[in-house]
């Protein structure tokens, strides 16, 4: 198994339900891409990353509907094993470092250092 990406997604079912942000770990296993939702014991696969994530959305829909039908929504949260969470965090860390380096290098390339030094920072909440 090779971990290939970490994504944060929301699953929306029409205007009826939207999930909170979910953590999805993508790996390559036996020539297919596996998308694993870390908040639920739900995974799906596909030929490509998008296929796997779309299959995962359908699997999560069924998972939620089954919990509603069986009156077990209190048990929906069933987190993945720690090894998957660690892999997710490691991929996120690498992506964050790459984005930070890219943004700083772009600023240096455009010779913004002096202007940045004179400008007050602005905090943006997401």
Describe the protein.
With 126 residues, this protein is of the alpha+beta class. It has one domain (2-91). It has helices at residues 49-69, 82-109, 113-118; strands at residues 2-9, 12-13, 17-18, 22-29, 32-37, 42-46. The strands form two sheets. A four-stranded antiparallel beta sheet has the order 1-4-5-6, sandwiched between helices. Strand 4 and strand 5 (32-37) form a beta hairpin. The longest helix has 28 residues, at 82-109. It is elongated. The two termini are 33 Å apart. The mean pLDDT is 94.
Keywords:
alpha+beta; 6 strands; 126 residues; 44% helix; 4-stranded antiparallel beta sheet; single chain; elongated; 3 helices; two-stranded antiparallel sheet
Query: Helix segment count?
Result: 3
Strand order of the largest sheet: 1-4-5-6
**Main sheet overview:** 4 strands, antiparallel
The helical percent reads 40-55%
Broad structural category: alpha+beta
Total discrete domains: 1
| Total strand segments | 6
Provide the β-strand percentage band.
15-25%
The shape, in one word, is elongated
Q: C-alpha Rg, in Å?
A: 19 Å
N-to-C order of helices and strands: EEEEEEHHH
How far apart are the first and last residues' alpha carbons, in Å? 33 Å
Low-confidence stretches: none
Mean pLDDT: 94
Give the topology.
Layout: E1 2-9, E2 12-13, E3 17-18, E4 22-29, E5 32-37, E6 42-46, H1 49-69, H2 82-109, H3 113-118
Antiparallel strand pairs: 1-4, 2-3, 4-5, 5-6
């Amino acid at each position: 198994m090779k971990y290939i990406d970490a994504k944060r997604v929301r699953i929306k079912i029409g205007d009826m339900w939207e999930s909170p942000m979910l953590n999805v770990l993508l790996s390559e296993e036996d020539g297919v891409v596996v998308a694993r939702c870390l908040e639920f014991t739900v995974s799906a696969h596909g030929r490509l990353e998008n296929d796997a994530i779309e299959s995962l959305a359908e699997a999560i829909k069924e998972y939620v509907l089954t919990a509603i039908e069986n009156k077990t929504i209190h048990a929906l949260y069933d987190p993945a094993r720690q090894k998957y969470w660690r892999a997710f965090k490691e991929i996120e860390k690498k992506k964050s470092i790459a984005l930070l380096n890219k943004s700083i290098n772009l600023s240096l390339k455009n010779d913004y250092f002096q202007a940045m030094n004179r400008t007050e920072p602005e905090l943006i909440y997401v």
